[in-house]
Each structure stands twice: as C-alpha cells, then as structure tokens.
Amino acid sequence: MGLWPWLTGALLLLLLLVQLSRSARFYAKVSLYCALCVSGSTLAAVICLLRHGGRTVENLSIISWFVRTFKYMFGLRFDIKGRQKLEVDHPCVIISNHQSILDMMGLMEALPKRCVQIAKRELLFMGPVGLIMYLGGVFFINRQRSRTAMTVMADVGERMVRENLKVWVYPEGTRNDNGDLLPFKKGAFYLAIQAQVPIIPVVYSSFSSFYNYKTKFFTSGTIRVEVLDAVPTSGLTVADVPKLMDSCHQAMRTTFLRISKTPQENGATAGPGSQPAQ
Predict the structure, then answer these.
(1) Phi, psi torsion values for 70, nearest 5 degrees
(2) Distance set, CA 196 to CA 86, 129, 147, 189, 240 (Å)
(3) Nearest to residue 94, comparing CAs of 10, 192, 15?
C-alpha cells in the first residue's frame, strides 16, 4: 500500500477533528499563528538585510507590514482611537497592557515611526523571530540580572534622546489574561523620568471574547484600542516614580475595564472575567 492513502487519511482525520473539536481548532489556529511568525520573520529578515544591511529602526516598517497581514487569516479587526497621539516628533515611552501571544499583532497595528520595543532576552534566541527582533532594533533585557537590566535601561534612555526614538514597554512584565491589569513594574517609569520624556499609555481591550487559552477558544473578533493623553515627566525625579506609576495604572485600568465591556463584533461581551460565547 502506498504512502499517499495514509497521508490523505491523516489529512481527512485532521480536518474532521478541527471541525468537531474546539480544542483542535484552537491548537490549529495557534499553530498557524506560530508558523506565520516563523515564516514571516524569515522572509522579512531577508528583505531587511537586503534593503538596510543590518540592525536599524528603519526595518520596523518592513516587519510591521508582514505582521499586520496576519489579522486577515484570523478574522481580527483593530479599532484604534487616538492614534494621532502616537505620531509625535520627539522621544517618548509608550506603555501598554500585555495579554497573549497575539499582542504582537496589536503592537504592529499601532506602532508609530521610530519606535522600538523592550523585550526579555530569551526572545533573542527564538530563531527567525529573535533575528527579526534584533534587526528591528529591539532592546533585550536580562530580567534575571538586575544590574545588567539597569545598565541596558540607562543606555536606552541615552539612545532614545540622541536618536529620537520612541520606546514601547509592557509595564506588567508578563502576559496577563485574568480580566484585569497586573501591578506595574517600575522600569518604564524610571526610563521616562531619567530621559525626561513623556509617557503615552495605550490600552487594548480584553481578548476574552475571541481568545481564551484556558477554555481553548479562538475565533474572530474586534480589539478596541485607546491611546490616552501623554503624561509629562519634565521636572520629575526618582522620588516621583511611585506616584507616576500609580496614576498611569489607574488611568489604564479604568480605560481597560470600560472598553472591554463594549459588545464585540462576534456578539460576545469582553467584560473582565467573562467567558466566551459557546
């Protein structure tokens, strides 16, 4: 018996599982997303090297184009309010909430010009994905070594002013899908005060109406994004970090809870802790 009947049978079985099992559909979509990340990163890396020859923030326009096409594969829409607040011609620190592996699509949808991300060092070793992040100018921080992280942050502060860069940070420090915001870490606020640049908060609505890892749910939907007013740091010192951090957290949390209660395009309501429609 030849190989083709076995392959055909396996493919038909896989298609049947995807149709019958929500978990199978979930893992199939997540696998597709990961495959797109790897293949897109590989192709984008080649184009970045051919066009710019190496590591530069200018590569981000290429990377962004590739990632922004992913949403069409999953039926996702981004409704962004206040995008113009990000298009400023001066350095700033942009902070946003962090929910899942899908955040990269949201990041690239809103990413302004000359904006780089701060990411954990482990991502640098993720094959083509790590390579494209490196080529895009991402700053990598070893979170296990606080002295090294502080040195990198100091360098970031100097470079963002010298090179007129915007820096995107996830102040929660890790992914969080519990329907609320985690407490913020201080790094982004130290960075903004050190460089005396404003902070611009960006809030993404809850993904729970279309994506839920615990219940293995992944369908189409709309992500609402609000860019809040810039928070100035001119004249602030390190002593002002706790107050600055708390005020940004409160403003972002209020916005997150408000926009996450708005009915989503797929008919579900993405309120904190809500479960997706079955």
Answers:
(1) -60, -35
(2) 17, 32, 22, 10, 12
(3) 192
